[in-house]
Amino acid sequence: MRINSYLQSRAGAAYLGLAIGDALGATVEFMTPREIAAQYQVHKQLIGGGWLKLKPGQVTDDTTMALALGGSILEAGRVDAHAAARAFDAWMRGKPVDIGSTVRRGLLAFRKTGDPKMPPSEHDAGNGAAMRVLPVALATLDLPEENVRAACRAQAHVTHNNPLSDAATETLALMVRDALLGADKLDLLHQRAHPLAKQHPEFAFRAVRQRQNPSGYIVETLQAVFQAFFDTDTFEDCLIDVVNRGGDADTTGAIAGMLAGAVYGPAGIPQRWLLGLDAGVQCACETQALALLEL
């Protein structure tokens, strides 16, 4: 595949969108919409704080796990479950600012057994595999869809082996890929979001009330993300909409950010957010996005 400037810029915007959504949402993670409104009216600045007491523009596990996964793909030359597990384990040993319980359990199991695949579990339908999937989408851009899905599952099952987690993770990777290759939001709605809900009715998002205070359950996460993404017209409005719903706002922000970045491109990202994002994280995202495309 010929890597042109359009593709490079959109891939970079997707990665920056993930990091910005993560940093923006982390401030209001675990808050309710009413609490957010009382404290901020509308939360729309990279100010840090929150329960993790972050610095302005600092990111959480959503972005740092994605970067760890991307690094493993570049080192192995492909998406490889063992490489991903080793990278995640090294990431956890580095004492990240935050780590989900399902992720921790999966990585502790890998340390003990050396097996990079958790057994299937109905209890592992969290959003941890989906939040970090962006590097897979970038590294498999020219592969058949079945290969993309297999690559998504390879990294996901290190910590999350669940049909709903798999379906959401694969759909998000394919949506990013489609957007980078020129699909618009209507294409993504009819070709990806609706088929996901048809296959797994739990993910229906048009027929449910606006998802407020979404938890880490992948169904609630994706319902909130899809409602915000498809019902707004700009990158900024999408992210403000989804993080002000509260709940697991760093992850809903990160996932919405990578989708919106891929669709709206770098010109759609507000300058104040680019300037407010941690400079090291911004450099790492842009560098890795290009390297994964070239892979």
Overall domain count: 1
Bin the helical content.
Answer: 55-70%
CATH topology: ADP-ribosylglycohydrolase fold
**How many strands?**
0
Distance between the termini: 10 Å
Series of secondary-structure elements, N-terminal to C-terminal: HHHHHHHHHHHHHHH
Summarize, please.
The protein contains 15 helices and no strands.
Present the secondary structure layout.
Blueprint: H1 5-26, H2 33-40, H3 61-76, H4 81-93, H5 101-113, H6 128-131, H7 134-139, H8 145-156, H9 163-180, H10 185-199, H11 218-230, H12 235-243, H13 249-264, H14 271-276, H15 279-294
Question: Explain this structure to me?
Answer:
There is one protein chain. The chain has a single domain (5-294), classed as ADP-ribosylglycohydrolase fold, CATH 1.10.4080.10. The chain is an all-alpha fold and 295 residues long. Helix 1 (5-26) packs antiparallel against helix 15 and helix 3 (61-76) packs across helix 4 (81-93). The protein starts with a helix and ends with a helix. The longest helix has 22 residues, at 5-26. The chain has helices at residues 5-26, 33-40, 61-76, 81-93, 101-113, 128-131, 134-139, 145-156, 163-180, 185-199, 218-230, 235-243, 249-264, 271-276, 279-294. The relative contact order is 0.21. It is built from 15 helices and no strands.
